[in-house]
Amino acid sequence: MNSVETKDVHLYYGDFHALKGITMAMKKNQVTAFIGPSGCGKSTYLRCFNRMNDLIDGVKIEGDILIDGVDIYKTNIQVDDLRKHVGMVFQKPNPFPKSIFENVAYGLRVNGTKDKRFIEERVERSLKQAALWDEVKDKLKKSAFELSGGQQQRLCIARALAIEPSVVLMDEPTSALDPLSTAKTEELIHQLKEEYTIVIVTHNMQQAGRVSDYTAFFYLGELVEYAKTKTLFTNPKDQRTQNYITGRFG
Amino acid sequence: MKRYFHNLGEKLIEGLITISGTVTSITVLLIVFFLFKEGLGIFSQSPVAEGSVIAVHQNNPVKELKAEEVKEIFDQNITNWKELGGPNAPIKLFSIDDITDYYTEEQIGANFEYLPQRLNELVAKEPNILAFFPEEYLAKDFKGHQIKLANVSLGDFLLGRQWYPTIQPAVQLGVLSLILGTLWVSLGAILIALPLGLASAIYLAEIANPKVRNILKPVIELLAGIPSVVYGFFGLVVIVPLIQDLFGLPVGETALAGSIVLGIMALPTIISVSEDAMRTTPRAMKEASLALGANKWQTIYKVIIPYSISGISTAAILGIGRAIGETMAVLMVTGNASVIPHTFLEPVRTIPATIAAELGEAPQGGIHYQALFALGCILFLMTLVINLTVDFVSTKKKENR
Questions:
Q1: Minimal Cα–Cα distance from A51 to chain B, Å?
Q2: Transmembrane ranges (chain B) (predicted)?
Q3: Are B308 and B224 members of one domain?
Q4: Which residue from A184, B71, B161, B332 has the least number of CB within 10 angstroms?
C-alpha cells in the first residue's frame, strides 16, 4: 500500500525549475531514503509533502501529491490538518525555548488538546518511542536547551510523534550529530517504521544503506532511479547513479 | 629598514589609540565625579536662603530649627514656641519690611545706616521674636541668637514633599514630588509604548511583506532622530489641547500629555530593538512549529515571543531609559507643577525638566545649585540601574542559548 504518491510534480522557484516531473510512490511502514548531491531537489521534494514550501515566496507547484489517497494541494485542504498528519524532523535539532515536557506537548496544545492526563500520557509515550524517556524522565521541567545535541534531536522526533502522524519526514536528521548519536537515531528509525511511514533525506550513502528499505536517487531536479535499497546500491541501472554511489561526483 | 618603519607606525597608532581611549574614559569618570561632588555638597549646607539671617532673643531656648519648621512658622501653621520646644508663648514674626512698625524713618536713617543697631535693639527687646533680615544688616555686637538651620539630611531630601528652592528665608528641598513625577510620566509612557511597539514589531518581523518592511523599518528608525523639541512642540500644539477638551480640564498640560509624547518618542527604540530580536528566531524553529500544525499566531505567541523575550525586555528597558532622561519635550507639555500627582490628569514636574528650567537661575555654588546637581545624581543612579538591568537581561539571554 502506498502512503505517499506523487504524479508528475514540477516545482519552480520563480524562474528556476527545481523539480522536473517526479512520479513515485512511497510504501506504508517502510523507510524510503532520498539521496543525491546538494541542490538536486531532494529536500525541496520532501518539503512538498507537508507543504513547507508554501512559506517561500514565488514557489509554484504543479502535479498531484497524494498522502493516504488525499490530494494535499486541493483547495479544501487545511494546511494545519495536513501537518498534523505528516510530521517532520529537521536538519539541526530545533527544540523550542521551553521545558522538555512542553516541547513534546506543543503539537497537542496548539491543536487544542486540553486534557492534562491525556497530554501527560502522550508525552511519556512519545518520549519512550524516541528512546529518550529514561534519560529525561527526572528532568521534564528543565529547559530543552540543557540536553545534548543528540538528545535534542530525539526530543524533536518525540515532538513530531506526539501528534501521531502517519508519515514522518526527516530532512538530514543526523547531519549535525556525532557518530554515537547518529547510530542511536538510526536505530530509532528502524523501530519507528513499525508504526510510521518514514521518508528520509540524507547526504550519507552509508546511512541510506543502513536504514532504508527503498532508495531514490535525485540529480538536477530529476528522479534518476528508484529501487529497493539493496538493488540500487549493488546493481544500479543508470550510469549517473553508478557514478554517484561509487563516489565519482557529489 | 622598511619593516622597521612599518612596526614603528603600528606602535605609534597603537599608542595613540591607547591614549585617546584612556583620556576618554577618565573624562567620563571625571564628569561623574564632578556631578557627585557638587551634588553631595548639599548635605553639608544649611538651607538658609542666600544672605539671610534668622534670629531669636538670646534667652530663647530654641537654638536650632529645621527648614520645614521655618516654612511652617512663616505660613502661620506653627504659632507658638511650645511646638518647637520653647516656652509657652506666641511666636512674634518679624521680617525686615515690618521695621517701620517699630521705628520711624529718622531712627533708621535715610540710607538705613542705623538699621543694624535698631534690629539689634528690637531682637534684644522682644523675647518671643523670630526675626528674619538680610545678612548685611547684622550688627557687629548682635545680642540676639542666630538660629542655625539643620543641614539637609538625605531622608529630608528624598522624602520631602516641598520643592521651593528659592523661598525666603529657608529653602525647601524635598524632591519626592519630582522623583514621583518622573516615575509617573515614564510609567505612563511605557504603558503606552510597549503594547504599540510590540504590535508594530510583530507586524514588521512576521506579517508585513518584505517590500513594506524595507520601507517601514528605516522610516521608524528615522523617527528616533527627530529632535525632542519637535516632539514637544507637537505635544503642545496637538496633544495638550486634545487632552484638555477630551477630559474637560482647566489645563491640558498633564502627566498624560507627557506620557503620550514620551511614549511616541520611545516607540522607535522599542520597535527597532524588539523587531531585531524577533528576527533572530531561527527559521528552523518557526518551521518546526508550523510543521506541528500550529498556525501563524500560535507560532508568534508560543515560539517567537518566548524565544525573543530577553530582546523584548531589553527594548522595553531602553525605552524606559529614554523616557526617564528626556527633558525638553516633557518640560513643554507636563505643566511643571512640583506636587505629588494622584492621577495622570494632573500637572507633574520631572527631574530633567527641573534641572533644565532652574539651573540657569541658580547661583553657582549655592544650595539651590547643589540641589539641582543632587537631582542629577538621582537621575544618574536611576539610569544606571536601568542600564545594569539591560546588561543583566542580555547576558542572561546569552547563557540561555
A1: 9
A2: 12-36, 183-207, 219-243, 255-273, 304-324, 371-393
A3: yes
A4: B161
